[in-house]
Amino acid sequence: MARIHLIDGEKGGVGKSLFARVMVQYAIDKKLEHTLVDADITNQDVKRFYNYAVDAEFSEAVNKGDKADIIFELARKQPVIVNLPANVFPQVKNWIKKGRLLEVADKYDVDICKWFVCDGGFESIDLFYQSLKLYKDKMLHIFVRNLGKTDDWSFLKDNTTYKDLCKKHEKTLKIIDFPMLYPGDRYFIDSNKFRFDAIEIGEKMPIMSQQRLSTFLEESNQAIENTQMWVKEKKSAKNSSSQSS
Questions:
Q1: Are the C-beta atoms of 189 and 201 separated by less than 8 Å?
Q2: In whole angstroms, how far apart are CA 11 and each of 7, 89, 145, 213, 236?
Q3: Is the pLDDT of residue 233 over 60?
């Protein structure tokens, strides 16, 4: 399966890097072949935990316009997880447009999936709308509702724009909930620089914290699993009309 998994969110602080780490751990635990790319060169908080990550850069500089091309080349061999930095929408858009990425990807049978992590704020949701409207059904989208930022998303149920876009793109859009990881539990893990599969977690982390972490990872993995974005059959997501809500 050739697929580029863009972990996006555009805004800072929406939980993008945490979700990227969960995605990486999911692939490791499931023994799924993958390459990890950390494109957040100023704050590589995913590579910090998974040091096999490859560097890439999205830049407006003319002499750096090809620094992200490695993503596509890697994706021709196996799935690629890309941790994107915040505020990079214009650069990514330019990279896709200038290189005609969507056309090239289709030619070489590579899917592009954007996991859009959202905190529930107006700006965050509006940026998701912009991405959907720009790429339409040419790019798979997963709308990741971060329950750690907003625990009640019922306000979107009667939102006309949201409902219309979901209906319009139902074949290439899925929606999942990303559970909350307690701040204290995350602080313990991050301050010790533990991966989610670190043996030291079982030795040093308080028992109740371990149980909450286990529940968090189980629920996160199930949400990722439900999207079928990691199934082996190519183009399966584009042929599926199912949508989680």
A1: yes
A2: 12, 10, 14, 25, 30
A3: no
Q: What is the pLDDT of residues 83-137, one digit of tens each?
A: 999 999 999 999 999 899 999 999 999 999 999 999 999 999 999 999 999 998 8
Chain centre to alpha carbon of residue 144:
8
Angle (deg, nearest 10), helices 89-98 and 122-135: 0
* DSSP sequence for 175-235: EEEE----HHHHHHHHHTT--TT-HHHHHHS-HHHHHHHHHHHHHHHHHHHHHTTT-SSTT
Q: Note the pTM of the prediction, 2 decimals.
A: 0.91
Token duo for residue 24: 């990486």
Spatial strand order of the sheet with 111-118 comes to 54-55, 35-38, 80-83, 3-8, 111-118, 140-146, 173-178
